[in-house]
Amino acid sequence: MERLQKIIAQAGIASRRGAEKLISQGRVRVNDHVVTQMGHKVNPEKDRIFFDGSPINLENKIYLLLNKPAGYVTTLSDPQGRPIVTDLLPEIDVRLFPVGRLDLETEGALLMTNDGALGNYVLHPRYEINKTYEATVKGLPPAASIQRLSRGIMIEGHKTYPAQLRFLEKSKAHSKIEIIIHEGKKRQVRKMFQAIGHPVVHLKRTAYGNLQLGRLSSGKYRTLTKNDLKNLFLEKIPFTIKNIPA
Ligand code: URA
Predict the structure, then answer these.
(1) Average pLDDT of every residue of the chain
(2) How far, in Å, is the centroid of ligand 1 from the Cα of 223?
(3) CATH assignment of 130-208?
(4) How far apart are the first and last CA of the chain?
(5) Distance between CA 96 and CA 164 in Å, rounded?
(6) Where in the chain is the domain with CATH 3.30.70.580?
(7) At 193, which helix (H) or strand (E)?
(8) Among 11, 52, 166, 219, which has the minimal tally of Cβ within 10 Å of its Cβ?
(9) Angle, alpha carbons 191-196-201 (nearest 5°)
(10) Which of ligand 1's atoms lies nearest the C-alpha of 192?
(11) Could you identify the atom of ligand 1 that is nearest to the CA of residue 103?
């Protein structure tokens, strides 16, 4: 037997605390009875559990957008014992993995899910999901160098795809540049600016596809809605979104 709020959280409908709220609001039914009392135990094999009238499926998928702080690794374990991004999701009971990676020192938008199919689609180069970064670089790159980057530049024998760049701040010491790319090669943005002689000193991903980080604070996450996911795919990906709240 399992606590009802745990089952709801595992189904990806809400965090455990959020699930308690939904239960107290009378939105959860077990078989024929609405349960509002906390700590109610259910048998996930036998009991039928409904949320807002729809049966919940324990195979529900979880999708969230995390604002990764610098100093966290995006692997699922680290032999050097450094903090890992899943440390930031203590109330998520299921095992999530990051879609793609961010360097240890890079901050910002990281999509996390337990949906392997989605991960594969989103990472496939064919779908060209844009990633938007704010790069603070050393010095003030001349317009010609920015143009080279936007057209594509040779790095380790490969030409990068065209990118969109614009200055956000200019100064002799450091400049802040927005760069949008859809490739995901290792340390790509750092290598691109290194190649024009203006190394990155700070890097933040501000959007993953159409999913904007917005005002999400560092170390916090938000669960994604169906609409978020539709926006992410821009209707490009033949992927059915299942079992997540609207
Ligand atoms: N490009 C980089 O250089 N680092 C990242 O973490 C992501 C993109």
Answers:
(1) 89
(2) 23
(3) 3.30.70.1560
(4) 29
(5) 31
(6) 63-125+210-233
(7) helix 188-195
(8) 166
(9) 60
(10) 3
(11) 6
Architecture, CATH, for domain 2-55? Roll (3.10)
How large is the greatest C-alpha to C-alpha distance in the chain, in angstroms?
A: 69
From ligand 1's centre to the CA of 230, what distance in Å? 25
Of 191, 181, 170, 43, whose CA–CA distance to 100 is shortest? 181
Residue-wise pLDDT for 155-203, tens only, equals 999 999 999 999 999 999 999 999 999 988 899 999 999 999 999 999 9
The residue contributing the CA closest to ligand 1 atom 7 is: 102
CA of 22 to the centre of ligand 1 (A): 39
Q: Tell whether domain 63-125+210-233 is in CATH 3.30.70.580.
A: yes
Strand partners, 112: 64, 98
Please name the residue that has the structure tokens 């899943």.
86
Please state the pTM of the whole predicted model.
0.77
- d(CA 68, CA 82) in angstroms, rounded, equals 14
